[in-house]
Task: inverse folding
């Protein structure tokens, strides 16, 4: 099936051809069409939906329990977060990066690159 990004879009304001662009927004590479005349922007619908899903998850607070397992402590990562990172977590034994950013903030890094949505 052809992707919509392979097509040319005509601006509904000035009726000129748009240019394809890729924009980076909060770590996501979003495909878009931009009218060079009136600067109107259209985002790829699939990319925009994935970005909206991220925004919803980003603003959600999760309560998780800290547990002692052997000599280490563990925290369960909610399924919603793992499902969002689906292509990265094909294998349960995936290594991720963790750092203590300040005395009250612990960060987990699933990957260190832009998330391409296509």
Result:
């Amino acid at each position: 099936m052809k992707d919509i990004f392979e097509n040319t879009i005509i601006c509904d304001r000035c009726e000129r051809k748009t240019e394809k662009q890729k924009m980076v927004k909060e770590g996501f590479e979003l495909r878009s069409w931009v009218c060079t005349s009136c600067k109107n922007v259209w985002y790829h619908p699939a990319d925009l939906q994935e970005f909206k899903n991220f925004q919803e998850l980003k603003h959600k607070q999760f309560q998780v329990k800290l547990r002692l397992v052997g000599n280490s402590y563990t925290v369960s990562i909610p399924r919603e977060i793992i499902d969002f990172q689906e292509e990265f977590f094909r294998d349960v034994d995936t290594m991720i990066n963790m750092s203590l950013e300040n005395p009250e903030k612990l960060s987990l890094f699933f990957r260190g690159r832009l998330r391409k949505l296509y």
